Amino acid sequence: MKAKLIVLASTLPAVLFLAGCATPLPPGAERGPHNTMAYDVLVESSPPGARIEANGEDLGPAPVHLKIFGDPDGTFHDFGSYYYVVRALPEAGAANEHIQMRAFQTGHALTPEDRIPQKIYFDMTQPPPAYQTTAPGPGPGPYPPGYYGPYPYPYYYGYYGPYYGPRIYIGGPRYYHRW
User: Where are the domains positioned within the chain?
Assistant: First the structure.
């Protein structure tokens, strides 16, 4: 009898923990992949008729209702990309109209995640920023992309530290030989 109570007492916390991992969806919400739910976002543009793209997929001329699958807390879900990008392309032959873009962070690799908006509005007469022409992404790193040289600190130097003996670093600071 005591053995059954001990087994029951040890499995009950595990069952409660696993049952609490799934966030319940609100009643009437459309279920999506990976325990997500569908959000309806209205996308408009200042002169109607601009072509709307979401993550490279053409949705048609504005105004468009866009279905975004996000987390139940109202944020974008991480489906493997850093950003969810919505672009508006001007109509062919339109004068003084520019490509517009909105990029939302999805929380990929512990980056922040944005809330899903109820409406996205593009003013096609606004010029895009001069510093950004494509979707943002992870940068090239601390050095220029064509830099294949050694790190900008010396590899071979002696170190007289708290152990009262010279340390000679060979091949970088992680590998050293102590004499």
Answer: 29-122
